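Quick entry between incubations.
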Amino acid sequence: MQVTLADIKRGQQGIIIDVSSIHIPLKLLEMGCLPGNVVELVQVAPFADPMYLNINGTHLAIRKETAIHILIEISNV
Amino acid sequence: MSKQINVALIGNPNTGKTSVFNALTGLNQKVGNYPGITVEKKEGICKLPRGVKAHIIDLPGTYSLNASSLDENVVIELLLNKNDKDFPDVAVVVSDVENLKRNLLLYTQIKDLEIPTILAINMSDRMNYKGIQLDIPYLEKELKTKIALISTRKNKGINQLKELIANYKELSVAPCVNASEIDTDYFDKLRQAFPNQLLYKLWLVITQDVNFGKVDRNEVDAINSFKTKSKADLKRLQQKETIKRYQFINNTLKKGQTIDLNSAKDLRIRLDRILTHKVWGYLIFFVILLTIFQAIYDWAQVPMELIDGAFAALSEWTKNAMPQGVFTDLIAEGVIPGLGGIVIFIPQIAFLFLFIAVLEESGYMSRVVFLMDRIMRRFGLSGKSVVPLISGTACAIPAIMATRNIESWKERLITILVTPFTTCSARLPVYLIIIELVIPEGRFLGLGYQPLTLMLLYLIGFGAAVGSAWILNKILKIKSKTFFVVEMPNYKLPLFKNVALTVLEKTKSFVFGAGKIILAISIVLWFLASYGPGEDFNNAEAIVTTQYASENMSEADLNQKIASHKLEHSFIGITGRAIEPAITPLGYDWKIGIAIVSSFAAREVFVGTLATIYSVENDDVDTITNRMAKDTNRATGGKLFTLASGISLLLFYAFAMQCMSTLAIVKRETNSWKWPTLQLIIMTIFAYIVALIAFQFLK
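Done. Structure below.
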């Protein structure tokens, strides 16, 4: 099932499908947010924003407004 | 003597790069600024085997050579400019063992610039713990370099790294990735247009325009004419480049690195479950702040009393030991009390720097950014504004510089404008002395009234910052694209050496920076307070004696009256009384007025000024605080420092923009006089009004 990263629940994992949106900063890609990588939602702040992610071992936080541009495939683990 | 080797330490943030720097240079380091900009420049000397010396620069942390902030830009500027005197003969890319993949991105970019590059893998002591194994010979072959496995925590591998640096000439300069494959057509044309330049360097210069636009292009100026791609196209190419580099890195690590996930025991997950929790996270943050303020008070008390007493004794000793005269008076009444006024705060300021260093080193600060982002955004700030606002409690100047990693210009500008409201260490002396004078010593629920007042003042400062940010966010019409990416590094036990060096360095620069101003001002003040024009000053003795002739006064009291009379009619007294009408409604007398005016240069001068004025007036061996406590207000006859005037003064200092250096930094960071001028006017007026209301209400 393809959804955006903003829809993922805490503890859920997904595989990144597409990050080509112009709204995604290059820095995020450089930190490992690339197609094919596994992403997991580690923790959310109140109001589900920002989101604390684990992307292939790199832990980082992004805002929901960026997450809605990242397409992922949720794996049923 | 042989030439020194220039070494640049480069790496992602949070890789322990500074630990490596400290391990290589020890105390042979100095912190300065890059010319023209205020990015901190750390450099040092390291002795290598066979008598070779290396000049080492610790460059700001960056994830890639595509700069998105001023800090990162420093790295690129240096690597692109072969004529820079610091241009590295060899680069050392510092990576931590857990984030090797991400650090290799930066590594492959630097390799493409054909600079000899050593890979230093730090925190190697954690490999077993994390279940990581590395095939070093394979990685060295694929990455075309030498690798040093080091652990700054266990002090391992540093000698091997030094050995590699000394033999840098044996390193290959061949690139690992051929970036031009992302668009062969485009890169072929680029090569034809500039046949003498390194292709990857050209590409970086072109793309920096997209990201940042401030690269100094001295030798490749003509590149401006080479605009065959739109910004969006270039950005897509950069995305492609990043993906290509990661392909190479993934392939290399597939064989060179094995990670046994089962043996990875993650402390992070357990800690983060609590520290970033919706409720507990905030509660813990609050408790940490509370503890810090309580500790600043309790721990620093003993050394402060010692220093206070020592300076009073030193002043007395100087007076007795040196021949009587103007010079002795200047030293004993001007210089020593003035300096004592600042030295006494070293313990508290050092503790504050200590706590901030520990919060940053441990990785906790990123969690605060995460927790606060949503809340701060409501006020037009970013979660990243929390770091400037917290480090602003040390000093607004580095805090304003720390705003550079805020990606949105509007959020950054607002952060710069409101940061001076946070209670900086220069306000601390002022607060402490006034709290000591007007707040009683009792305890409430085990917490002293005095530390609680201090905490309240910090909260007021923070509240003023956030409140004005909210207003600015409504007023300022700036459109800027915001994005927010923040790494959540692993928790680390702070290294004693790193924390100690930071505290030492910061305290030293605070004391020397402030000390110079205070020394100069206290000398000037002493002259102004010790001399005066006209009858009233020169014949003070006769005038006072006649005035009190009818009363039966002891000689000591009479001398005291004479000294006060002299001071009031000295140059400084005349100036002070001239401004008195403006400050009387706030509950201040002319002495406080003078202190406020002179502390415009820097807030902490307030204490030094009062110290100088009070010691000119009074020759007793008594600490300055005691003298201030005894002083009376001429207008009312009551005590000068009452709860009302004290609170009024505290609030005035909480809001007023009393720091020339901060104004200068704001000018430099915003590149206009408009913002610092507005800041100065608005903050001063606001401070005056609040202090006025407070005094009139409480008196």
